[in-house]
C-alpha cells in the first residue's frame, strides 16, 4: 500500500491559489511527444499527428464515491487517475495525458493536498502519462476531484461497445469481485473502530481484496497483449459498475444476447474464503460487485486458440441472438436473466 503520513498542518490560505497550483504542479515532467505544451499557459497544446484522440472524464465526490475514513488521500489520487485510464484502455487506446481539477474545503491542510498529488504523480509515472493542466477551486464542505484522460489510437485499432456478434466469445481479463469485497471488509472495520477506537484491525486475510479496492490498476497491458496475439476485440468495455451491468451495455449496444457461465467466472481464492465468512454468495459478488477495472470484450471463435492458455484471460460465455436475451447459466444448469444490479451513484438504497 502507499504509505506516507505527514503530521504537519499548513493552511492553504498561506499559499494562495496560484502559490498552491505552482506548489502542486512544479514537479510534473512531460514524457509524451504528443504534449507540445503542458501546465502553465491558458490551455495545453497537443499534437496526435495521424492518430485519433480519445477523451474521457470522471468526477469523484467525497461521501458519494469515496470515504476518507478508510481511503487515504494518496490512494484517492492514484485511483482517480486509474479509473480514467481504464476507460481509455476500454477503447483499445493508449493513455497519454490527464488533467486534474480539484475543489477543496478549508478543512484540508496543504499536507492533505500534497498527499492527493503524490498519488496522482505516482499514477502518472506508473502509466507514463503527462499531467497537462487542471483547475483549483474551493468547496464549502467536501473534496471533489475530476480527472480527464486523453489517449491515442489508430482509427483501425479503436474498439467500441457495439461490435459484438452472435457466436462470438465473451472474455474477461483478471478476476472479478475482489474490489467490492475489499470495500465490505473496510466498512466492517470502520464500524468496529467506531464502537471501539482502541481496536487494531487484523487485515492479513484480506490483503488482496483491500489492495484491489484501494489501489486498483488500469489494464494498459491488455492492448499490447492483444496486439501481440493478433487479436482485435469486436467490442469492449471496462468493468467499473459490475460484470452484469457491463455485459448488458455490450449486448444492448451490439443488439445481441449472451450466455454467461457461472462455473467459468474467474474468482480469487481469497474472495471465496471471505464470502464464506461474510455469508455472501461469491458468484453474486463476482457478477454485481463493481470497481474491478478489468476489461470485458468479445472475440471471434477463430481467435479462441490464441487466448485459451493465456492466464490473463478467461472465456466466460458466448454471444447469442438478441431475442434469446442475456442469461447466467448456473452450475445447476438453470438459466437466470442477467440484471444490472451494479453499483449506481444515483440509486438510493
Ligand atoms: P486559468 O485562470 O486560466 O484557469 P489557472 O491559474 O487556474 O489558469 O491555471 C494555471 C495553470 O495551472 C494552467 O495550465 C492549469 O491547467 C494548471 N492547473 C491549475 N490547477 C491545476 C491542478 N489542480 N492540477 C494541475 N494543473 C493545474
Ligand atoms: Mg483555473
What does the model show?
32% of the residues lie in helices and 23% in strands. The radius of gyration is 21 Å and the shape is globular. It has 2 domains: 12-153, 60s Ribosomal Protein L30, Chain: A, CATH 3.30.1330; 169-337, PurM-like C-terminal domain (Phosphoribosyl-aminoimidazole Synthetase, Chain A, domain 2), CATH 3.90.650. It has helices at 16-25, 73-89, 110-126, 178-195, 207-214, 220-228, 243-254, 269-278, 282-288, 304-307; strands at residues 35-37, 45-46, 52-61, 94-104, 130-138, 144-153, 169-173, 235-238, 256-261, 295-299, 313-321, 326-329, 335-337. It has 349 residues and is α+β, with helices and mostly antiparallel strands. Strands 8-10-7-11-9-12-13 form a 7-stranded mixed beta sheet, with helices on both faces.
CATH top level class name of the largest domain: Alpha Beta
State the distance separating the first and last CA atoms.
31 Å
List the secondary-structure elements in sequence, H or E.
HEEEHEHEEEHHHEHEHHEHEEE
Remind me, CATH topology of the largest domain? Phosphoribosyl-aminoimidazole Synthetase, Chain A, domain 2
Number of helical stretches of at least 4 residues: 10
* Beta-strand residue percentage: 15-25%
Main pleated-sheet profile: 7 strands, mixed
Average pLDDT rating: 94
β-strand number = 13
- Structural class, judged by helices and strands? alpha+beta
For the biggest β-sheet, the strand order reads 8-10-7-11-9-12-13
Subunit organisation of the chains:
single chain
Binned, the helix content reads 25-40%
Name the poorly predicted regions.
none
The H-level CATH homologous superfamily of the largest domain, spelled out, is PurM-like C-terminal domain
Using the alpha-carbon principal axes, give the shape: globular
Bound molecule kinds, no repeats: adenosine-5'-diphosphate, magnesium ion
Radius of gyration: 21 Å
